[in-house]
Fold this sequence. Notes:
This protein is mostly beta strands. The chain is about 10% helix and about 65% strand. It contains one helix and ten strands.
Amino acid sequence: xxxxxxxxxAVLFTASYAQAQFRAGIRAGLNVTSxxxxxxxxxxxxEESNTEGRFGFQAGVVGEYxxxxxxxxxxxIIYAQQGYMVRETIGDEEEYLMDFALNYVxxxxxxxxxxxxxxxxxxxxxxxxxxxxxxxxxKIEHKExxxxxxxxxDDVNFTDDSLKRLDMGAGIGLGMQFSSVQVAFGYNIGLxxxxxxxxxxxxxxxxxxxxxxxxxxxx
Length: 219
């Protein structure tokens, strides 16, 4: 049964490949990420808190199967920096800052709809992604005015009572294509709680601005 399934998948892949134009490429971009959920990590849990987006970058390789002039499937393997920052104040002078960073390998698979000519067009894209956390770092800083009272840095511990390495979610985006160059604005929302703590609900989310270059000519 397994052999039959493998043969069928190979036949379908070969048939699809024969009808599609394939191009490979590279991607780089900027991320602004945060967490969402019912109880994300916080330094001191006070009311005067300000969650801030954390800037990072992404880079990786892309493949694009174009089916005609309007539709394409675009899988990718991306290294992406994610995380969040939260700033909390007590009184006029005392401040706590938490900087939480995670480094992921992500595999998004997007369906693209292109509007315009093959060489210059707008496109919409959407699809699922799977991520795997390679490592991470957390930092808590306590300040009074401009003076740092205490600063603590630790590696993120991926254990049964801490964070999960696996992440899953969905993404949407829009952009423009100029022949071999694609510029896109995207938004990813995590659909999986990455915390192993039953009292904490943490899900990744964030926006990105990316530049993709695809090798090969547009037919």
